[in-house]
Amino acid sequence: MINSIKTVAIVGAGLVGRMLVWQLSNKYPDIQITLFDKGCLQHSKSAANTAAGMISPLSELSVSERGIYDMGILALQQWPLWLQTLQEQTELQVDYQSTGSIVLAHALDKSELTQFQQELDFKLTKHDLDSNPYQWLEKTQLQNKESQLGQNFDEGLFLNDEAYIDNRALL
Hints:
By secondary structure, the protein is of the alpha+beta class.
């Protein structure tokens, strides 16, 4: 069916819209693709201009369904491959760091951080947990990872398999 399509319109010039244009144009070079956005394409008001660029399946798991987590894990595998291909095709270098993230709570909110960890344990499988997807950090460990954090927080939860992408570089 895709072979009979001659033109495609994509609405939304944010990160997903632009990546979709790139993927479709690579896979189907004969299709004419038009990208629409309600604002100016050079100064889009898309979420990518305000979002942090986190690829954070574990952080999202406590407030979402397991399928969201699974797609996030897939994204952690796909983004480096996509960025390598994009760089080969366009020489565009996009910062991508798979260095994990830290979830914090002030001392009075420690119970919420503990609840967050319990929700992860409930939603993760034994196989997931065997890979040690997170670890508790004490004050000294926090200072070693992020020097400014250890001054204000006594502990945190380090989520190993999370990443950052400079999504604005793709706009």
